[in-house]
Amino acid sequence: DTGVSQNPRHKITKRGQNVTFRCDPISEHNRLYWYRQTLGQGPEFLTYFQNEAQLEKSRLLSDRFSAERPKGSFSTLEIQRTEQGDSAMYLCASSFTALRQTLGTEAFFGQGTRLTVV
Amino acid sequence: RKEVEQDPGPFNVPEGATVAFNCTYSNSASQSFFWYRQDCRKEPKLLMSVYSSGNEDGRFTAQLNRASQYISLLIRDSKLSDSATYLCVVNYRMGTQGAQKLVFGQGTRLTINP
Hints:
The structure holds 2 protein chains of 2 kinds.
Chain A: E1 5-7, E2 10-13, E3 19-24, E4 31-37, E5 44-50, E6 53-57, E7 65-68, E8 75-79, E9 88-95, E10 108-109, E11 113-117
Parallel strand pairs in A: 2-11
Antiparallel strand pairs in A: 1-3, 3-8, 4-5, 4-9, 5-6, 7-8, 9-10, 9-11
Chain B: E1 4-6, E2 11-14, E3 19-25, E4 32-38, E5 45-50, E6 55-57, E7 60-65, E8 70-75, E9 84-94, E10 99-104, E11 108-113
Parallel strand pairs in B: 2-11
Antiparallel strand pairs in B: 1-3, 3-8, 4-5, 4-9, 6-7, 7-8, 9-10, 9-11
């Protein structure tokens, strides 16, 4: 399977604990996005990487959230001191866009990590 | 005002009917537009890219109106398998480093009834 892979698929954690999710994008995709989705809502943008550079971070992302893409391949999203409001589906997506291409290309999503904070 | 707005529905239509969704966006710098489909508890999957001249793929037709900043999706001869949530997506560049942002609407839920 050469699609976007996310691990774990499900995570249940106690409030106050730290959690880390991993995303392996489609090989050679230079762009990687993290989204959060709650029931009845569309995916909400969290952050965006172009290769290893984190170029955009949502204002909604508090200091408890951090994301990395150290070698421009896989990415991790860490949530520190989890709160019940962090319970959601965390989706990762990747795409490839050539350097001088101005139009965006479609993104492909992983199956997500469902986080439940109890 | 939300960056991308959709009528959340739900839309309940009989099999074989034609159904249309509209979506409006607020950022006039938006450059690319897509419709994604999301089944219950699954990830979003690309349904169609939306080109400025409008495009058709089988029973699905997408149109873009840049002047009015809206995108539409038409589904003809709807099938039971079309039941899903349809997400309108707008892509635009930010800043000078080429960062791009895909912004999703909240989705329109469609149920096709036999």
